[in-house]
Amino acid sequence: MLDLRALVRAGDGVWWSQTSAEPTPLVDALLEQLPAIGPVDAFVGMTLNRRLVDNLPQDLTVISYGGLGLLRTLSGSGRLEIVPSHYSTIPRLFSTGAIAADVGLVQVSPPDADGYVTLGTGVDYAADAVPATRTLIAEINQQMPATVGSPRIHFSRFAATLETDRPLITTPARDSSWEERVIGQHVAALIDDGSTLQVGVGTLPSAVLAALGNHKDLGLHTGIVSDSVLPLIRSGVLTGARAEFEPGTLVTGAALGSEELYTTIPDLSLEFRPVSHTHDPRILSRLSSLVSVNGAIEVDLAGNVGAEYADAVLVGALGGQTDFARAASSTGRLSIIALRSTARGASTIVPTLVHGPVTTSRADVDCVVTEHGVAHLTGCTLRERARRLIAVAAPEHRESLERQSFSALAHAAVD
What we know:
The chain has helices at residues 24-37, 51-54, 71-76, 90-95, 124-129, 178-190, 203-210, 230-234, 259-264, 275-278, 281-284, 321-330, 382-391, 395-413, and strands spanning 13-16, 40-43, 60-64, 80-82, 103-108, 116-117, 135-141, 153-154, 160-164, 196-199, 219-220, 250-252, 270-272, 290-295, 298-300, 305-306, 309-310, 313-314, 334-338, 342-343, 346-347, 349-350, 367-370, 373-376. It is of the alpha/beta class. Strand 1, helix 1 and strand 2 (40-43) form a beta-alpha-beta unit. Helix 6 (178-190) packs across helix 7 and helix 13 (382-391) runs antiparallel to helix 14 (395-413). The radius of gyration is 22 Å and the shape is globular.
């Protein structure tokens, strides 16, 4: 175990890489040594490290932009501090010190012949945090693939390193439900050949991607990819050939999936870019073919989207949804919100948002898709929006929604 006591000080702000690039041995070392170090604040995005939720030390304050992965458990226990921010603003939060970057923990690929490493499958906010970081500590994992698209880091930049040879964090593949497969078909029918896609990870995004097998020359500009992109790349559907700039390049910030995905990455035309590229409004405004496909927990009758809270527990994030939805709706091609019409028997189309704040504004949503169809909202009045959204709600909830729509619309008109 690496001794961190001389590198991390009491009161420091520590951050580390997320998803498959989470430097678990370094994080575990930090947790073990906190009694000797003293209190620290820790910023992390999505984590799958059970040690953060099973026995979190009192000396560690966990800060994040959302409740992704196991962080939702911390949210439920009141141990998670949230910085509400669009994903596009995170680079500025690091550069200005709003998110402290005294110490950074990263997982990197082995050094090349010139002593340079890459951030592998976890470029995203890590690449933007590195320049602001006082003390950088690396897990050099022999199984982390070297990726292109982000500045490499010279070995001399690290204050300490730990060498490992371990599999990257994987997530088990889960089958999409029949509702999700139907939603995927509806979404695919909205996407034109040559479009540039932003889509997340999970069973519903996988269903959307699986429905695109007959499309041509799609591009990719997204925050994270899973195994679901592999069939489309191999079959020549995802080519980026018609991209407005950098044609032939598929862009992501991170990867989370199977070992097959990680070992295949060096053979793909996939570039890993920092948040300051993937989510930059100036970059996104150049993608006139951009189609964003995002999920939700609930959508109200005006088209406002809630994608953060469920039953007072943070299970999502502001994240990049609004960054992409606004760009796709205003300067791109289409902003799509896709969700199942019910969750645990309750309607996800609601008169007003029940669980939390507005994640994405009604003005940034072009279509809402459920297994019951597509509600086209662009240019519609509030009354027409409500009518169209009720039409794609679960049939057993439509009558109730119609009764409540008048008061909901009155509320929406003054928001």
